[in-house]
Every structure is written in C-alpha cells, then in structure tokens.
Design a protein that fits this description.
The protein is α+β, with helices and mostly antiparallel strands and about 575 residues long. It folds into two domains: about 325 residues, 3-Layer(aba) Sandwich (Rossmann fold); about 120 residues. About 50% of the residues lie in helices and about 15% in strands. The chain is built from 13 helices and 13 strands. The strands form three sheets. The chain has a seven-stranded antiparallel sheet, covered by helices on one side. It has a four-stranded parallel sheet with strand order 11-12-3-13, sandwiched between helices. The protein has a two-stranded antiparallel sheet with strand order 9-10. α6 runs antiparallel to α10, α7 runs antiparallel to α9 and α11 packs across α12. The protein is elongated.
C-alpha cells in the first residue's frame, strides 16, 4: 500500500493516501480565464513520480528527466513485504535508490549508506525486490521469456494515453508474447505455456527468415530441391576427386622456370635460324639462276656494236675487235666465279644452320620432356586453390542440403510441438478452472456494477497461444471501451489484494474517464471505492473537477472525503511541484 509521496523541495505538495478510494483533483478557479487549463497542474506528473520511485525507466529530456527537475528527489513511502519503507530516487542519479526501514529477509539485501542513514540499492536489484515482494517473482525462472516486474506493474499504473486503448496492453509497442505471458501470470494461468509458445514462434520466425533469404537471392546456391542439390554435390565430389588425384601425382621441378625460360629462348633461336635459312635459300636460288643464264654474246653482235661505235666515235674508239671480245669474256668469267663462290658459301651456311636447328631442336625436346613430367610452383598453387574452391562449394552445398533437410524436419517438429503444447495448455487450463474462473466472475461483477447486462472476460487457447477478449453490450463507443479497461484492472486489483503482502493498489489517470458517460463515471468511482475498501486496497485516480459527476452519485456517497489533494490553476504555487515546467522557480 502507498502511504505518502514527498520531495526534497518545499514547493512540492505532499500527498498522503489511505485505503479505499483516493482522488487527486485538478480544479479551475473562478478567476481563471478560458485560456487557463488544468492540464499541467501535476496530475499525470504525480503518477509519473510514483512509477519513477517504483523503478520506471527515464529518458533524458523527457518526463521527469528535464532540466528544471535535475536537483529534485522524490520519496515514496510504501509497505513492502509487510514492512513500511521509504524509497528515495533522485532525478540526476536515477540508477540508485535509497531505502529506509526494515529490510531483513528481503530477497535482495541493499548496501548500507552512512550518509543517508539507510540502504542503497541499484535499479536492477530494486526491481528484483519489488518483483518478489509484489508479484512473487523468482530469479530462478529457467525460461527465455519470463514475467518482468516492470511489465506487470504497468497494468496497475497506466501512465500514458496508449495505455488506455486495450485492457491487455499497457503500451502500443507491447509485443504479443508480452501480453499473453503477463496476462496469463496475473490471471493465475500457466504462463510457462505462453513462454514455450513464444519460443516455438521464434523458431518459426528463424525458419521463415531463411526461406525469405533464399527467395530474395541472398542464398542463391541454396535454391532448388533436395534432389537437385544432391546431384550438384555428386558432380562436385567427382570434380574434387579428379583434382585431388592430379594434385597427388603433381611433381614440382626446382628449376622449372629456368628450364621453361631456356626452352623459350631455344625456340626463339630456332625460329631465327629458320628465318635465315629462308632468306639464304631465296638468295641461293637467284644465284643459281644467274649462273645458268650467264652466256657470252655472239661474235656478230660484238662486230655490229664495234662497227657502230667506230662510226659514231671515230676518234675515241682505238681498240681492236679482238681486244673487246677478250675483255667481255673476262667480265663474264669473273661474274660466274663470284656467283659460284657465293653459291658454295650459302650452301655451307645453310648446312651449318640446319645442323644448328637440329641441335637446338634436340635440346629443346629434352627440356620439354622435363616440363611435361614436372610442374611449377605457380601451377601447384593454382591447382591447390582450385581444389580448395571446389571443396568449399561442396561443403556449402552439403550445408545447404542439410539445412533444407533440417528446416523441413524442424517445421515438422514445431508443428508437432505446437499441437502437443496446445493440448497440454488446454488440459492445464481445464485443471486450473477454479483459479481462472475467479477473474471471469469478478470481471462479470464489475461490468454489471456499471451496466445492466454483465460483460464477459473471454480466454481462448490455440496454437498461437492465449487469446483474450472482453465483451460488454453496447461496446464500440469510447466510453464503454474505457470502462472495459476499468473493469479489467479492478479485477486484477481484487485478485492481487487477496494474496498476503502482495500488491494492493491500482492507479488510473484522468484519461480513463474521458468520453465516459457521467452516470457510468459515478458508478465506476463508487464501485472502485467499495471494492478497494472491501479488499483493504487502494484505488488512486486523478480527475479534473468538471469530470466529477456529483449529480449522479448515490445518496450517502461523499466524494469529497476521498479527495487527498486538490491542485488549482490559481497560481503556479498551487500546482503539484509549485511551479510550471515551462516557468521554473527563480
């Protein structure tokens, strides 16, 4: 039970709570204008402060964690595990909480703090303490998905607008498994079935992710059937064997590159010699043709030439015809001798070049035989790389093949496990009928207190887990949807308050009553007062003064005696903190 909220600043308006109905009222003074508003007076801030002291997360620059509040500390006086304690948490150091009061026997012992004259505890340990004290949570839960204190307490302290949309959600970002598990826990059902169900969903999501990756091409090689992948594996296995056999018989010559370079040089020399032979053969052919065609001119032709020369050059020509004939014969003889000499020289050169070609050819053949029976280190490296590549492809194909088989098997096993879990959950649900029938009855009673026809809390089980719903006749309007949340939360308070030393308070913001008919608003407040008093519990709510349905209350119901604090817009000092956020005190 919450007893008192204080702060380290004198401007703060201390709030004290009692068992039963507790109202924090925001009122507008007669002198205020239409521009004045009750929003910002501190109603929602008070709920934030309570939740802050109960270990809520804070984000810098948001909520209470703003610059004007950096020096503020808030203290929550509360009964925990049967012991009244004071919990203090500072805005500027939210990861530390200070506790005063008896703490013997707590599941999490805090550290002594001499300056504070109490005990100091970090945020995680404080949450563990609250989880054990208020909900009997244990750190020994051996499941991936398990109840958390912060999610459970958020059903009893609904803070933001999106907490008033659905009875089974305290935020629009709450996951399906979180709703299923925590509602099952609060209603006394087997929450571990919800945990196991979510684990199966995770496995299904993993399989779907692989399927999607294959379809999108991220795992291109994994496409195809089992038979197609097996055929590819056989092909790669054969290729791997051939390359491995080649590697096993591979011989590396230590001077492979030198021999290869020498063979290349000899080949070039042979090519050059062959080219020279071609040139020489052509020259030899021309010389031989010249020798055969070289014949002296006839005597008649010489006589004619001489006679003509004597006529044309009578003074210059002095030689006799005999001398001319001898001179011409000498020229022809000398040319023939030159050609014959050249022919013999070229023929000898060609013979030597042919001998050189044969010698080089034999030498090259020997080198090539070495190259044929041995390999170079580069070739060995390439062969090894090719084998590694083939082996990698083969292993990848085998992995994909195994993945497909495993995925098929896992799908089958998940379906079997889901069916078995559904069967177990249904049997367990039936065995716990005496437990979960209580919240169904309480919700029925709460709804009937507000409406002529009783509403229903519906719980179903299928392979997707727990399915929850609430039904109230004429549902659909905003007011009735809000009252579904009211009836559900009040039912949770009734269940928890019956457990010794457990949670026995419920807090609602004024947003719950927006759009609710004044008659239902009056019935809700009266019923909350009756239920909380009967169960030694607290129902704490904030309201604007114009939301109070004074004309609709039953005779004898004194609303004003339940008002613990009235905030007004008369001036900033009348707000909860004594100043407005946008106008901090000087």
């Amino acid at each position: 039970m919450i007893h008192r909220i204080t702060a380290n600043k004198l401007s703060f308006h201390t709030v004290e709570f009692k068992p039963g109905l507790n109202v924090v009222l925001a009122d507008r003074t007669e002198e205020s204008t239409q521009k004045d508003t009750r929003n910002g007076l501190g109603k929602s801030t008070l709920i934030d402060i309570i939740d802050f002291c109960l270990g809520a997360n804070v984000r810098k620059g948001q909520g209470l964690s703003i610059e004007p509040l950096q020096d503020w500390e808030f203290t929550l006086e509360i009964t925990l595990a049967g012991n009244p304690v004071k919990v203090t948490r500072a805005i500027k150091s939210p990861n530390r909480l200070y506790i005063e009061g008896p703490t013997a026997g707590w599941v999490e012992e805090s550290d002594h703090d001499g300056l504070f004259r109490g005990r100091r505890s970090n945020l995680d340990r404080w949450r563990a303490l609250f989880g054990e004290a208020l909900f009997d949570l244990h750190s020994s839960y051996n499941t991936k998905y398990k109840p958390s204190f912060r999610s459970l307490i958020s059903y009893f302290i609904r803070r933001r607008t999106d907490a008033y949309i659905d009875p089974f959600s305290h935020t629009r970002y709450q996951t399906t498994w979180d709703r299923q598990l925590h509602i099952a826990f609060l209603l006394g059902m087997n929450w571990e079935n919800a945990s196991k169900c979510q684990e199966l969903k995770d496995q299904e999501r993993g399989i779907r992710a692989i399927d999607q990756a294959i379809k999108s091409g991220a795992m291109e090689g994994a496409r195809g059937s089992v038979g197609e992948l097996e055929a590819e594996c056989v092909q790669l296995e054969n290729q791997f064997k051939r390359e491995s056999d080649a590697l096993e018989g591979f011989k590396v010559h230590p001077q492979y590159e030198t021999i290869q370079n020498e063979a290349d040089r000899i080949t070039k020399t042979i090519h050059n010699l062959n080219n020279e032979n071609i040139v020489d053969q052509r020259r030899l052919s021309r010389y031989k043709e010249s020798v055969e065609a070289e014949t002296p001119p006839s005597n008649t032709a010489i006589d004619n030439i001489y006679e003509e020369s004597g006529v044309i050059f009578p003074d210059l020509v002095r030689r006799t015809l005999t001398e001319a004939k001898e001179f011409h014969s000498k020229i022809i003889e000398n040319r023939r001798a030159f050609l014959e000499t050249e022919i013999r020289r070229i023929e000898r050169k060609i013979r030597l070049q042919n001998d050189e070609i044969r010698r080089h050819t034999d030498e090259r053949a020997g080198l090539l035989r070495i190259l044929e029976t041995h390999g170079a280190m580069q070739e060995l490296a390439k062969l090894q790389e090719r084998i590694i590549e083939i082996r990698g492809n083969l292993e990848q194909k085998r992995t994909w093949l195994e993945e497909i088989r495993d995925r098929t098997s896992r799908k089958r096993n998940i379906n079997i496990a889901k069916a078995e879990l559904t069967k177990i959950a249904e049997q367990d649900h039936e065995e716990r009928r005496d437990i979960w029938s209580v919240p169904l009855r309480l919700f029925n009673d709460n709804s009937q207190a507000l409406y002529e026809a009783a509403g229903h809390l519906v719980i179903n089980i299928d392979e997707t887990g727990f399915k929850y719903d609430v039904e109230i006749d004429k549902s659909g309007s905003e007011g009735i949807e809000k009252m579904k949340i009211f009836c559900f939360d009040l039912m949770l308070l009734q269940i928890m308050s019956k457990q010794n030393n457990r949670l026995n308070f419920l807090i609602h913001d004024s947003g719950l009553y927006d759009g609710v008919d004044s008659r239902q608003r009056a019935l809700a407040l009266e019923h909350a007062s009756k239920v909380s008093s009967a169960n030694n519990a607290q129902y704490i709510c904030t309201l604007n003064s114009d939301m109070v349905p004074r004309d609709d209350f039953s005779d004898g119901f004194n609303f004003d005696k339940h008002v613990r604090l009235t905030l007004t817009d008369e001036d900033p000092s009348k707000s909860l903190l004594g100043f407005y956020f946008d106008r901090p005190p000087k």
